[in-house]
Amino acid sequence: MNILGRSITKNGILLGVFAVVTTGVIAGTYLSTRGLIQDNIRHAEESALLELFPKSSHDNSMLDDAISASDSELLGLRESKKLYRASMNGEFVGAILPATARDGYTGDIDMIVGITEDGTISGVRVLSHRETPGLGDQVDYKKSHWVDGFLGKSLSNPEESKWAVKKDKGVFDQFTGATITPRAVTNAVHKALQYYDANKAQIINAVAANTSEQQVNTDAGTQP
């Protein structure tokens, strides 16, 4: 074997060893941090849920007490998402519903809506959106607390005709220079209340049965 051949062979072996070592390091790093990453994700998810149902209002782990919802008519979901339940001493306290406003100014607005057992809103949080900075992004709790305007509201408070922004003769504020975004969120929250009202028995029964990952009826307004 000539000098060039030996050099190529040597370099090939070195590259192979380097690749094996690098792969081992990456794999080891992933395995050692995977648990921490999952814990951080779980903590972030739990923190979002606790904003709608604080620890003082329930004694179960909402993350571990979830069912699947895939309603596209009232919840506006494009895929199945988790619906979380809160309970105290085994008694149903409320639920956190996933919802999507498909008619945002620049696209979907994904949110969660907390609803107590009696159908009253305990809180709303927008999880993701692409609304205009300085205008529509005020639905984000980090930008403003506009969504707190839904606290304590229900299907009967206000009456159905008033479930709209003030520009549409409703009771909810819109933003200066932006109406489409608050209108979309208001409509989505109202529909989430309608979904809860139509499926309340199923949600409560699922909690009583303590069966996770059950499928809530996806046909709005129907019961099994």
TrEMBL record:
Keywords: Cell inner membrane, Cell membrane, Electron transport, Flavoprotein, FMN, Membrane, Phosphoprotein, Translocase, Transmembrane, Transmembrane helix, Transport. Its cofactor is FMN. The keyword tRNA processing does not apply. The modification FMN phosphoryl threonine is found at residue 179. It is a single-pass membrane protein. Its EC number is 7.-.-.-. It is found in: Cell inner membrane. The keyword Cell membrane applies. The chain crosses the membrane at residues 12-31. Residues 104-196 form the FMN-binding domain. It comes from the Bacteria. InterPro entries: FMN-bd, Ion_transpt_RnfG/RsxG. Belongs to the RnfG family. Part of a membrane-bound complex that couples electron transfer with translocation of ions across the membrane. The complex is composed of six subunits: RnfA, RnfB, RnfC, RnfD, RnfE and RnfG. This is Ion-translocating oxidoreductase complex subunit G. It comes from Zhongshania aquimaris.
